[in-house]
Amino acid sequence: IQNLSGSWVDMPLQAHLKINIIDKHFQIPTGTVVLGENKISINQSAQIKNRLEWIINLNNAKKVKANFNGYLVAEQAQNHWSGQLNKADFSSEIIGAWFLKTPSIMQLSSTEITLKGITLQNNTNRLQIKGDFYYGQQGLNSNFHLASFFVPKQALILKDLHLNIAGKIGHPLLLKGSGYSGEGKFQVDGTLQFNTEKILSLNLTGKNLQLYNTQNIQITGSPTLTLNLKNNRLFVDGALLIHKAYLAMQDQKNIT
After folding, report:
1. What mean pLDDT do residues 223-231 have?
2. Vertex 124, ends 62 and 58: CA angle to 5°?
3. 100-108 long-range Cβ contacts below 8 angstroms, 24+ apart
4. Higher pLDDT residue, 120 or 39?
5. Is there a contact between 49 and 39 (Cβ–Cβ < 8 Å)?
6. H helices of 68-202, where?
7. Cβ-proximal residues to 53 (8 Å cutoff; 6+ apart), any chain
């Protein structure tokens, strides 16, 4: 049994763990880790013929909850395991509730973790996000794709959405993405960081984008905007060039 205390990436850490030596090179901890506002419980549910089954539960003081389970099988290469992430579900007030729709391939070593073929689904509006996840010595590098996304208020359908997230734990994550609205394409780039007042900073540019598409309002334009999310408030700065606008007024007189 090991009782640990200290810090990791500027967050206080306390741990009560039992280290299980699975082979000569690979060690699996079980127990509880408290990292900043995150409480992580790790349980080894079974080990049969070099097959390790595990369960991880995450609870965050900001009402972020997550559960993961899967299995790993030792390969001939030392300190290298492969397996499957069978279940993952997580929820928060900001992103809502999501779950892993189908199992994804997992590869693990002492320095790297890779998840391939991830398909996440939202419980509320049945959105599906597909992608891959990698974290290693070079940090995080993940790619995600969303085929389409409907924005109800503006009656917009955003299509072919791509997002890359890269960076290292303890540093701002770099975001870069693109997508289509109407006949126009847009790009985003910025940073995402935690444990700070300013969580998100994005630059948004696009040409000939469908900005509004309801029965009474249709607007097409080209934005050059900066968006900052700070203390749960969104601040927008920049310029928006309107190419075409159609407004249906209540007195039935149309303005174009």
Report:
1. 91
2. 30
3. 101/128, 103/70, 106/70, 106/72, 106/82, 107/80, 107/81, 107/82, 108/72, 108/80, 108/81, 108/82, 108/83
4. 120
5. no
6. none
7. 44, 45, 46, 47, 69, 70, 71
